[in-house]
Amino acid sequence: MPRSSDSIGHLAAALAQAQGELTNPEKTLTATLPATGPDAGPPRSFRYASLASGLEIVRQCLGRHEIAVMQTTNLDDAAACVRLTTMLVHASGEWIASDWPVCPVSEMASPQRMGAALTYARRYGLFTLAGIAGEDDLDAPDLNSGASTAFGGRVPSGQNGHGRGMASFRRRSPGMPSRHW
User: Fold this and answer.
1) Using alpha carbons only, how large is the chain's radius of gyration in Å?
2) CA end-to-end span of the chain
3) 65: containing domain
4) Burial tier of 92 (Cβ tally within 10 Å: 0-12, 13-18, 19+)
5) What is the count of structural domains for the chain?
6) Please, are residues 25 and 134 in contact by the beta-carbon 8 Å criterion?
7) 63 domain-assigned
8) pLDDT tens track for 7-63
9) Residues sharing a CB contact under 8 Å with residue 152, sequence separation 6 or more, in sequence order
């Protein structure tokens, strides 16, 4: 699937102006990562912004520059997963897109887990394309210790369980990147 329209000049100019006005959403939620393994140390926590707060900021700012946000899902039969596509679409018709795996199709039997994974993917997809930060910068402390991700192989779980579905997906999908996204 293409990641952008043939030309993105109008969109790029509008997005550059919008990014000069965008602010990072307030980090009002806290996730705690439990310590695991014999040398894991104490649990770690970090702050992050909700999807709703990021959407509010992004929609208002990008809308002033004739840019809309679109997020859709589809089933990827070949990978047996649910995928999220996030697009920034300009009034000129130009667009850019990002595609993220959400969870295995098997997670659809557990709507709460799938919904948590979808919220996590929507937040990361949106914040990435808009160029804003929605969580504390941990400087990937575990990457130097040989762990598979910046979160020790786990996706953060907040107060409402965001990320559990994605963590499950990563464990089952050997083709997935080992870095935190």
Assistant:
1) 17
2) 20
3) 9-32+43-172
4) middle
5) 1
6) yes
7) yes
8) 999 999 999 999 999 999 999 888 888 888 788 788 888 888 899 999 999 999 999
9) 33, 36, 40, 142
